[in-house]
Amino acid sequence: MDALVIAEHDNASIKGATLNTVTAAAACGGEVHVLVAGHNAGAAAQAATQIVGVSKVIHADGDSLAHDLAENLAAQVLAIASKYSHILFPATASGKNAAPRVAARLDVAQVSDITKVVSADTFERPIYAGNAIATVQSVDATKVITVRTTGFDPASATGGSAAVETVAAVPASSKSQFVGSEIAKSDRPELTAAKIIVSGGRALGSAEKFNEVITPLADKLGAAIGASRAAVDAGYAPNDLQVGQTGKIVAPQLYIACGISGAIQHLAGMKDSKVIVAINKDPEAPIFSVADYGLEADLFQAVPELVKAL
Amino acid sequence: MKALVPVKRVVDYNVKVRVKSDNTGVDIANVKMSMNPFDEIAVEEAVRLKEKGAVSEVIAVSCGVAACQETLRTAMAIGADRAILVETPADLELQPLAVAKLLKALVDKEQPGLVILGKQAIDDDCNQTGQMLAALADLPQATFASKVEVIGDKVSVIREVDGGLETLSLGLPAVVTTDLRLNEPRYVTLPNIMKAKKKPLETLKPEDLGVDVIPRIKTLKVSEPPKRGAGIKVADVATLVDKLKNEAKVI
Question: Is A56 exposed, middle or buried (0-12, 13-18, 19+ CB in 10 A)?
Fold first, then answer.
């Protein structure tokens, strides 16, 4: 049987997390189809046809699918679910929100946050904030899965030639209504897709200092900005920058941790980065145990110095 | 209206677990157990809604071994009015789908206006139960909540999503799952711990609720994650830049 990938998109284009999820789906065997559920999402559906390894794009378009409401998105997936042995969502805020509804309605367990496909029914996934890796086998007929994107290489976004099939959008749920959103506009790379991340911790001391110290370094490197939970809780950085067990999971080429002590929960979100740099004045900080390069220094001096030296 | 608050007993968040040498799981013998931190936030929120008059009764629920009674007592010390334990055998691995079905049965029985629970448990990191319950009970959901406001027969929820925040309005009854910024749970005081001991705690079995709790996912193996090779300390910024350019070649 075939695998269905639920695309993460903004109606105009396909988000990177979709590409990693396609790779995971291909490893499950069978054909890979992609569902683009959205509102005026023709461009995103066209973009999905170009993904290498995708044989069919299913495009559902309607008001009910405008805001990724879990009730409507799950209903849209359920409308075509019976054709598939595997249904894969990227483990993004939207994917995590809708996938368990699909699993529960199909009366199957969900395998969350997989990092490896061992075989069509067996997967690896981190547990306990990544301090252990479980190999799990699903005994259900349909596998509903969320995919940790850092575990899989992205499929190529161009070169494919899938056909588009249009399906009717499901009616909107009467019980849930989208009111509004505040999405930060930024020219920076997206945190989960960035090649370089500069991350700040509680040691920065204030939102002003966070911005004053971290931003120039990120600008210089063309990097995304991240933060520890402590920094977010203290209001130094917005919540969507949080890297860690319950925030964003990242694996850039270079991760620079400034004034982050390295709680287990933070390490869980970034320890798969290729190169880790830690700048911290506490020689005992646990972050040094995972850092490739540790610099024991006051970040208020070292970071500006680093900006100058680059 | 009643608020139902499911809570899970997990390894305390400060404990760094070890994988058992036979790779069958992690060693949780003699390890400190606590309430899942996200569930603690859920109990706090429900109690605050009661203090504001939006909720009339807070019912804490836990599914698991007999020791979950301690977790329920903690919930009642925070301010839950009564508790229900759905007790399962120690050798049974209780998975999110089974918990969601147990909670669905309790929702049918108790008819709460609001179910509020943690977005994920810090042991299995599944992030499933709230959404599954909402689907099974045919209720609207708002996951990853950072603000909850009951307005008439609706609940307005601000959610933490990728890139920022989003506001939803749900018709009650509804399911809400909590994120870290929703509130800071109060410290439980000794008088409240004493009071909690006298609050009612009912114990049920899955059979009483007619729910099949057989696991659908088999754990074949639990292993250590790959270790990172030991790094080095560099003396100064110049050395760091040199290493990044010429050794790691990442900038």
Answer: middle
Alpha helices for chain A (secondary structure H): 16-26, 42-49, 70-80, 93-105, 207-221, 229-233, 264-270, 299-309
- Token pair, residue B75, equals 């919930």
- The answer to whether the bond into B140 is cis (omega within 30° of 0) is no
> Is A134 within 8 Å of B222 when comparing Cβ atoms?
yes
- Let me know: does B132 contact B20? Beta carbons within 8 Å: no
Give the distance from residue B56's alpha carbon to the nearest chain A alpha carbon, in angstroms.
23
Q: CA A194, CA B244: separation in Å to the nearest integer? A: 17
Chain centroid to CA B152: 27
Amino acid identity for residue B63 in this structure: C
Contact A131 B141 (CB under 8 A): no
Name the residue among A154, A160, A164 with its Cα closest to residue A51: A160
| Residue reference for tokens 């749920």 | A173
- Residue A170: is it exposed, middle or buried by C-beta count within 10 angstroms (0-12/13-18/19+)? buried
Q: Which residue ranges form the domains of chain B, and what is each CATH number? A: 2-219 (3.40.50.620)
Average pLDDT of span B52-57: 98
In chain B, the residue whose alpha carbon lies closest to the alpha carbon of A192 is B162
B108-118 burial: b if 16+ Cβ within 10 Å, else e: eeeebbbbbbb
**pTM confidence score:** 0.95
The three-point CA angle B240-B241-B242 to 5° equals 90
Q: What is the pLDDT of residue A190?
A: 87
What's the complex ipTM? 0.95
The answer on pLDDT for A15 being more than 90 is yes
Please give the interface size between A and B, counted as residue pairs whose CB atoms are below 8 Å apart.
257
Subunit contact B168:A176, Cβ cutoff 8 A: yes
pLDDT at res. A281: 96
The 10s digit of each residue's pLDDT in A142-153 is 999 999 999 999
| pLDDT higher than threshold 80 for residue B229 | no
Mutate to test the interface with A, among B20, B22, B217, B242 (most CBs of A within 10 A): B217
Could you tell me if A231 and A252 are in contact, meaning their C-beta atoms sit under 8 angstroms apart? no
Residue tagged 């918990």 (tokens): B99
